[in-house]
Write the structure tokens for this entry.
Amino acid sequence: MIRTYKIIIATLSIVMALSSCLKNDVPYPRSLGKIVDFKVEGQSAPALIDTLERRVIVPMSEIADLSKVKLLVMEVSENVTNDITAQLTEYIDFTKENTFLLQTYPGQSYTWTVSATQHIERYIVAEYQIGEAIFDAEYRSAVFYVSEGLDDVHILDIKLGPEGSTITPDPREIRDFTSMHHVEVSYRDVIEKWTINAYMKDIQVETLPADAWSNHAYLNAVCAQGLNNPTFMYKQVDAQEWTTVPVDDVVLERSNLSAHIAGLLPATQYVYKAVADGAEGEEVIFETEHARQMPNMSFDDWYLDTPENKVADGKSWFPNVDIIDNYWWDSGNQGANMIGTANPTSPEDEFVISGRAVRMQTSSIVGQMAGGNIYSGQFVETVLFPKAGAKVDFGRPFTDRPTRLRGYYSYIPQSINSVREPYTDLEGENDKGRIFVVLYDTDEPFRVDTPAGIFLPPFSDDMYVGYGELVDDVGTGGEYKEFVIDIVYKNTRKPKYCAVVAVASMYADYFTGGIGSLMYVDEFSFEYDENVVWE
């Protein structure tokens, strides 16, 4: 069986247990029908399979004919009951979106969409060109800039269509670009009419904005084709002396200039400029990030919300000094404590690295499994009707970009003895503990809403800036073990929120885990350096 994981706190387990106590008409659990593998001829990369949105996106090579793509593999999960082969044909028309209906027991139906993307690499390389050419595939126009006269332009290389296409007339034989030129791009039996424009840009070197991290930065510029010894100079804003980046550390691709510099100070303003053959670009100022830590990453501070000082439910532990002005970390305790006082997540005073630690244990509460957990975010509310579940905001505001998460954990997994679909085949296997970190770029914290079927997306989702995880099904032998999780960055966007999460049972959201699985975590910290791991 193909296994997927959606992050839901243990609150959901408790809420479902309470709901089943209140009513007898417990519905059948959802048994999602999934496409788990999809391959076609001419594919350029693995298909993106999004279980949450129930869609498959297939990247295609630029020479593929999208109107007739041969299907090689379509595999569905074992719980699909209908004959999927009846919906398949040997070839798929990817000029449109395709749909497939998957049915599971008992009578549940799921519609999946399958579509394709096709990226065609286009470029123009000319003498004295400044920057990359700009292409508009919809209107079939190309624009490029040069620093010398338009009446004698020499195009060195050009590509407007798929690999193997031809351009008539050949733009490399056109020298006068004082006016627009029309060309035909031919490939197979397709002919497209394109326009090519050239414009003057009265500069030879242009300094672009930098991508500044806490103690290093990526510098960017464009310079005219043919200039010698292009490089960068930089300094602190209030310094007198400039530092020149060694030419060997500079990367020049066509007219794009870049360099990676390290050894910078956090939260400090710098200025830099690109230089080449005596020409200088404008000075550009950038400020490095702060290299912050989250509050209470040592987990020494705890607050017990008693009936006397009640702020939340009057009986839950919170890993914060208070939950009025310093509310940063939360857990599933509020859901677990709806009846009685359980606190699957609690402070630990004896088995620690330093100060206090976090103790998380998978427990049985009201006959239902609940996994202990901790996360940076906030429990919002419990929902009982019409469908049981919980709402949770994952993440706290965080705009710095650490390179890794370091800390200590101890884990003793139990055999999985509580199972639900779709993980019934895990019974008897070792439970899994999980620690992970995600940085993402949204305008507000991501709200998990289990009754509405909204869960924290998989790491492939575009909202993420960076991510990293540790999964353990072996345990640490009852001792603490130091861990280091590299944060893998998907892009250069600045994050707005960060969620750090630890759970004692990875599949607790599906009522699947080992009662008694026990995890401790202590002394978390972010590290910042120039050794960024890129996806």
Summary: Confidence is low (pLDDT under 50) at residues 1-29. The chain has four domains: 11-15+294-534, 31-118, 131-200, 207-280.
